[in-house]
Amino acid sequence: MRLAVVALLLVAGLVAAAYLVVPGPVNRSFLKASLERETSSGAEVLGSSRGNCRHVRGPRWRCRVQGRRGKRLVAYSVRVRDHACWTARSGKGRKPVEGCIHLLEPRIL
Q: Would you say 73 and 80 are in contact if contact means Cβ atoms under 8 Å apart?
């Protein structure tokens, strides 16, 4: 009986961990939430702030997310690579931001 409970808990833990690691779909809401997380956006709850992402062409997206203090929108040029990972740039001379979209991205606080 104990072995069955331990096995069940182990499987549940692996499934939960997989959902945090498994890449999520590349769409407007997932990409916006991922970019907000990596840029320390001023959004109170990721994915709920002003701003948006729009697909330009191929792996290229254009996103606007709240700045760190949440007062203004910052524009990013985003290139998606490796299925769900991306690199974003916002202006000349600024360090690029990198991240990956996760399956539960919009729900991460």
A: no
Residue 33 falls inside a structural domain:
yes
Is residue 14 included in any domain, yes or no? Answer: no
2-6, 43-47, 52-56, 58-62: which range is least confident on average? 43-47
**What pTM value is reported for the model?**
0.70
Domain residues for the domain of 83 are 24-107
Strands 97-100 and 52-57: unpaired
Residue 10 is assigned to a structural domain of this protein = no
Domain count, the chain: 1
- The CA distance from 38 to 59, in Å, is 19
Residue 28 counted as domain residue: yes
Q: Where are the alpha helices (DSSP H) in the chain?
A: 2-21, 28-38
pLDDT tens string 53-77? 999 999 999 999 887 766 688 899 9
